[in-house]
Design goal:
EC 1.8.4.11; Met_Sox_Rdtase_MsrA_dom; two-stranded antiparallel sheet; Peptide methionine sulfoxide reductase MsrA; oxidoreductase; Peptide Methionine Sulfoxide Reductase, Chain A; peptide-methionine (S)-S-oxide reductase activity
């Protein structure tokens, strides 16, 4: 069996996908992180369509990883500190259904692990509000336009400014560190 056959997929939504690539991209065993759209009702949507909030899509990242180097549990543990799991209206400065947080499972095992990790977040006592991050079956994933891919590398200054304005880093420091 080739190494490519061993690779697995994880898909997460956590607000603007620009901020969701870097936390996963830097780990050994992660082969690729693609920004895109999932969960909607039209085929091959554009950013212009998704940003209206009318297509049902989430901005998401799809992660291709080698489970022998980084496990799905480890990837879940990287996911949760990137989001406000109590916000059902978007994430940080990004508001609307396209910016909601969600875990999209690709197998029954991923579903079980995602539900267990959500329960751990609930039990942690970090949050007074209900944990509302959805756990949903994976559906068609459409890669975003090229200019959205690896945004943090290609547009470092704009990426840093967007993160600073979003309130994401302050939230992460307050609740997760």
């Amino acid at each position: 069996m080739s190494e490519k056959n061993l690779l697995q997929t994880a898909t997460f939504a956590g607000g603007c996908f620009w901020c969701m690539v870097k936390p996963f991209d830097q780990w050994d065993g992660v082969h690729q992180v693609t920004s895109g759209y999932t969960g909607g009702h039209i085929k091959n949507p554009s950013y212009e369509q998704v940003k209206t909030g009318q297509t049902g899509h989430y901005e998401a990242v799809q992660i291709i990883f080698d489970p022998l180097k980084i496990t799905y549990d480890q990837i879940l543990s990287l996911y949760w500190p990137q989001v406000d799991p109590t916000d059902s209206e978007g994430q940080f400065q990004d508001r609307g259904p396209q910016y909601r947080a969600a875990i999209f499972y690709h197998s029954e095992q991923q579903k079980i692990k995602a539900e267990q990790s959500k329960q751990e977040v609930k039990n942690s006592g970090k949050f007074k509000k209900e944990i509302v991050t959805e756990i949903l079956p994976a559906s068609d994933f459409y890669p975003a336009e090229d200019y959205h891919q690896d945004f943090y590398k290609k547009n470092e200054k704009e990426y840093q400014e967007d993160r600073k304005q979003s309130g994401r880093d302050e939230f992460i420091t307050t609740f997760w560190n």
